Amino acid sequence: MKENIVLKNSVKIHQIKDDKFQSVYASLKIVFKMKAFQNTTANLLAQMMSDRLTTNSSKASIAQRLDMLYGAKIGSTTYSMGSYQVIDLSVVAIAEHFVDTDLFQEQLNLLADMLYEPLLNEETFSEALKNMRLNHSRIKENPSQYAIVEAFKSAGAGQTFSLTALGNLEDLDSVTLQDVKDLHQLCINDFNKEIYTVGPIPDNADYTRFEIGNSASVSDALLKTNITPATEEVMYRGKQTELVLVFETDITPLSEDYAAYLVYIAHLGQLPSSLLFQVVREQHSLCYSIYSSRQIFDGIFYIATGVNDSNKDKALDLINEQIEIMKTDVHDVSAARQYLIMQMEGVNENQKSYTSHIFRNAMLGIENSVEEIQEAIAKVSAEDVQRVAKSVKPGFVYAYRGEHNEEN
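Predicted structure:
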């Protein structure tokens, strides 16, 4: 049973009571506009909000508190959703009917402490800076991941799409603890906040601790990203050339052709029978993997692969050839349809996935159930996919070229 509650400060509670789960998942999502520099500060704050609290100022104290909650787990992350950035705090604990205590209320209290009482001092700030630098180093050490990050920056230059919840490494030289504290106050007193709880929730759940501060409304989460056809090449000391092609689209989750768009992306490059995999990998042996993916809130999709640098131009020709072929020649898309339908089968059986689906709907202002999306996908025809294919325009090509190539 789903129940929506709005607190007096406009914080929205989405309470999904479902006894099939043995644990309760509680998530607080703080939503605010994606901005340069603030995205870096938010990344640091997200780390610090799940590190230590003013009431639990040591890691040992936090660990002891989690033990007292029967092994509860806390987490925090930050990510983008179109024009917005989200700080996502979570607490997972076993259902309280397994224990003789008001465990769910204690779970909510911990979530509230993560919001209102994170330990923001020089020590936790220094650790967050170090962790963020390490994270950026790990990304750069993974050429395929780094190429996607850099491709998005270049393809969306000057637009919100070029910003990332990962933050900017250069910002770490100027960001201060006071910047983090100021952003924390905005999280409490201004930014939109929504709480999602899923599982065997008791009837007497009390959310009044979250009535401190205010919660702004959100709108226009979807971005219209303009991609100018161009090619950018960057050399690096590596053994493989990473190719990322970025395409803009006018199709959004609110569009009539959205289900056909999902099938188009899957048929193009999301399963072993897809065109890109069959042609670029199987027939021509140019790569180990190649795939297409979508950023539904950003109005783009992309294709990524890694090849020997001597095969760069041939791979690009074959990719563009498949894109053009789909504009005039689309046959059986049943495998792509079935792949997408099966991919969504487990959404309602996983608390985090189900929460993400409901949050997505809230950000879009729609009420699409998983079953409704599956039904729409099942109705997609080859002609529908071809219509989507005809709307695809030339994209932006980012080539992260390895200087020391080996044959694949």
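Summary: The radius of gyration is 23 Å.
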